[in-house]
């Protein structure tokens, strides 16, 4: 027991260290490329540059301020407005910074080719003067600002647009499940920016699809039960004949997993914690299993994700579906002979340029994958997380039809 506690403590220290490193790198990148390399290079009056710096600092540090105000019991429209402004600025600057990095790389490369290495480094100083080079740099900077504004506007519209309904057909071995309708929602992230109205819209859309089963594959919330109970309440209006099922995502563990499990049960969902149920569809058995989040054991050791445990004792000859928040569970799902794994978590990158960058860290990003006769479907998320932006990866509700 002592060894287990020691190991858990070491894991927590490692996670905290990685988080602090990530935070340090993120802050450094924002300040350097967003502030020094962009704001300071704009030919603007000092007061306007101060305003831009203030907006950059707010985007970086509003989140801990929001958390502090919540611990004091503060809530209401003012905090919601703060969250909207902060997340929107965070998204805008993240798009801008990618453009600034690209600009510096291209200018540096061009300078190296034309003038040699030493002069190439000097060219990166981006002097503000009326020379042709200065005018070119000013033009590029204002072009970056305009493009960032347009992309952010399109991405905001994409985030506020109702989710797409993606219909996917799955063949089954003997056709006994023909006609079965499973509706998957995932990664709603009810919070300051995603409130009751959005949840009501999702419930209406899901109900219109006449599902036999509803599955919610994690990351329902970002906040405590007391803060968000009113926002998630419309989920109680989902009524599927064969049941509503829920699995934990990583954000449930950040938000107080045990109170949320009780609240989710109260809303009419069956919670699958490394467990399964054998259902009956017109006389044909169906195994529906669910695992905890792939990394849940790092936070709550007794919730360590285990497809093997989830399927222990399940009928071998039945069609097997595994609900697993992170697609990283797919290899274990295949080992347990799961015909179909339903996941979320990735958001498909959510918005450009992360829709490209996510492929560097995730082997399964969005949509349908098939390996060795086993299927994985990765839902892109039914709402959004953090910045209210969707660009190149629209939100979705997935209707799984069986033939």
What is the domain total for the residues?
2
Structural class: alpha/beta
Write down the oligomeric state.
single chain
- So how many helices? 12
- The unreliable regions are 1-7
User: Which value, in Å, is the CA radius of gyration?
Assistant: 24 Å
Tally of DSSP β-strands: 12
Annotation keywords:
403 residues; alpha/beta; Purple Acid Phosphatase, chain A, domain 2; 2 domains; six-stranded mixed beta sheet; 12 helices; disordered N terminus
Give a quick rundown of the structure.
With 403 residues, the protein is α/β, with parallel strands linked by helices.
Question: How would you sum up this structure, described in words?
Answer:
The strands form two sheets. A six-stranded mixed beta sheet has the order 1-12-2-3-4-5. The chain has a six-stranded mixed beta sheet with strand order 6-7-8-9-11-10. The model is unreliable at 1-7 (pLDDT under 50). Helix content is 46%, strand content 15%. The chain is globular. The N and C termini lie far apart (49 Å). The protein is of the alpha/beta class and 403 residues long. It contains twelve helices and twelve strands. Helix 7 links the parallel strand 3 and strand 4 (244-246).
Write the topology of this structure.
Elements: H1 2-36, H2 46-71, H3 77-115, H4 117-123, H5 132-160, E1 164-170, E2 181-185, H6 196-208, E3 213-216, H7 225-232, E4 244-246, H8 250-254, H9 257-266, E5 269-271, E6 275-281, E7 284-290, H10 307-310, E8 319-323, H11 330-335, E9 340-343, H12 354-357, E10 367-371, E11 374-378, E12 396-402
């Amino acid at each position: 027991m002592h060894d287990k506690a020691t190991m858990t403590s070491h894991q927590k220290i490692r996670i905290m260290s990685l988080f602090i490193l990530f935070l340090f790198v993120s802050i450094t990148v924002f300040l350097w490329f967003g502030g020094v390399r962009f704001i300071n290079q704009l030919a603007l009056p000092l007061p306007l540059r101060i305003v831009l710096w203030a907006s950059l600092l707010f985007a970086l540090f509003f989140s801990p301020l929001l958390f502090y105000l919540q611990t004091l019991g503060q809530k209401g429209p003012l905090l919601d407005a703060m969250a909207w402004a902060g997340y929107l600025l965070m998204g805008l600057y993240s798009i801008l910074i990618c453009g600034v990095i690209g600009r510096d790389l291209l200018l540096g490369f061009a300078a190296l080719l034309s003038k040699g290495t030493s002069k190439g480094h000097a060219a990166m100083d981006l002097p503000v003067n009326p020379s042709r080079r200065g005018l070119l740099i000013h033009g590029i900077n204002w072009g970056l600002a305009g493009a960032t504004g347009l992309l952010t506007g399109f991405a905001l519209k994409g985030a506020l647009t109702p989710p797409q309904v993606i219909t996917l057909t799955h063949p089954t071995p003997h056709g006994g499940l023909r006609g079965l309708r499973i509706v998957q929602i995932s990664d709603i992230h009810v919070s300051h920016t995603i409130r009751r109205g959005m949840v009501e819209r999702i419930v209406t859309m899901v109900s219109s699809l006449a599902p036999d089963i509803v599955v919610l594959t994690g990351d329902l919330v970002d906040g405590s039960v007391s803060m968000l109970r009113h926002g998630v309440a419309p989920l109680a209006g989902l009524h599927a004949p064969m049941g509503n099922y829920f699995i934990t995502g990583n954000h449930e563990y950040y938000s107080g997993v045990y109170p949320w499990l009780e609240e989710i049960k109260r809303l009419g969902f069956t919670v699958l914690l490394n467990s399964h149920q054998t259902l009956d569809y017109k006389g044909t058995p169906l195994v529906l299993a669910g695992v905890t989040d792939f990394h849940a054991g790092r936070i709550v050791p007794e919730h360590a994700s285990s497809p093997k445990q989830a399927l222990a004792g399940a009928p071998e000859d039945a069609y097997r579906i595994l609900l697993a928040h992170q697609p990283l569970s797919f290899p274990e799902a295949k080992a347990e002979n799961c015909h179909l794994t339903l996941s979320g978590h990735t958001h498909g990158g959510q918005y450009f340029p992360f829709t490209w960058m996510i492929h560097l860290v995730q082997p399964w990003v969005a949509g349908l994958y098939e390996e060795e006769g086993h299927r994985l479907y990765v839902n892109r998320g039914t709402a959004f997380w953090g910045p209210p932006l969707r660009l190149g990866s629209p939100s979705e509700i997935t209707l799984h039809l069986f033939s």
